[in-house]
UniProtKB/TrEMBL annotation:
Keywords: Signal. This is Lipoprotein. Residues 1-27 form the signal peptide. Residues 211-246 are annotated as: Disordered. Residues 216-246 have a biased composition (Acidic residues).
Length: 246
């Protein structure tokens, strides 16, 4: 006995019922079911915007790959590594070019370091008191990898007031200080081979040296023959005497 074939209207009704049931079962897994695609995409993008990312003002992120790390396992990233693509011996390579870390998990970066293609540090910044402002910045020499300049905010007011300069050996050469926080250096320390030899002062803060103090050393202190304290002044004095005799 042959059963009658279902009508087209009956097939359409069954198909509609099946689709409706599927949407009901998969509603949690498929947010687009029951709402349009645009609304679902907007919701997903909004959730992605809430994930903390690296600060583009602290290192170059254009065209770079970023890896996220959750140090305290609270579900939000607090360390970011930025990788740069390049070529070496006709081979494509990728190297770590920047790292940012939020140590106190407040959403602000407390440490930033940049690297060159060889993995050497080029720049480094620290926020020691976690107030959202960097308190020290290190610039490294490209050849030696040693610090070439260090800027410090000694009073934590958001402005660097102390600048240290280093030679290629990593020994300190000079220090500039801003004692009255006007943005200008008013005390200068001079060093030879890491030893302090003189301090210059701008006592009235007019950007002019008002006095100089020499640092005295014992006679048995050993100095390089070509870098004895006061040699520069002595040479200058000899030149003046020669000019007077002509």
């Amino acid at each position: 006995m042959l059963l009658p074939s279902p009508s087209r209207a009956a097939l359409r009704a069954a198909r509609a019922a099946l689709v409706g049931a599927s949407c009901g079962v998969l509603a949690l897994a498929l947010p687009a079911c029951g709402k349009n695609k645009k609304e679902a995409t907007t919701a997903e993008a909004s959730d992605a915007d809430k994930v903390p990312g690296p600060d583009p003002g602290l290192c170059d992120l254009i065209g770079k790959r970023v890896a996220l790390f959750d140090l305290n396992r609270d579900g939000a990233p607090d360390a970011w590594k930025v990788y740069t693509r390049g070529e070496e011996a006709e081979t494509r390579v990728e190297f770590l070019s920047c790292k940012q870390v939020d140590f106190d998990h407040d959403g602000r970066k407390d440490y930033v370091v940049e690297f060159d293609a060889k993995g050497a540090k080029t720049f480094e910044r620290f926020d020691f008191d976690f107030d959202g402002r960097f308190d020290a910045a290190f610039t490294f020499d490209e050849q030696s990898g040693m610090p070439a300049k260090v800027e410090r905010d000694s009073d934590f007011d958001g402005r660097y007031d102390l600048v240290e300069a280093y030679d290629e050996r990593g020994e300190i050469e000079s220090v500039e200080r801003d004692r009255n926080a006007d943005g200008n250096a008013d005390l200068w320390e001079q060093y030879i081979r890491g030893r302090l030899v003189a301090i210059l002062y701008d006592d009235d803060y007019d950007e002019q040296v008002d006095r100089r103090e020499e640092v005295e050393y014992r006679d048995d202190d050993v100095w390089p023959e070509d870098e004895l304290p006061g040699d520069a002044d002595a040479d200058a004095g000899d030149d003046d005497d020669d000019d007077d005799g002509e």
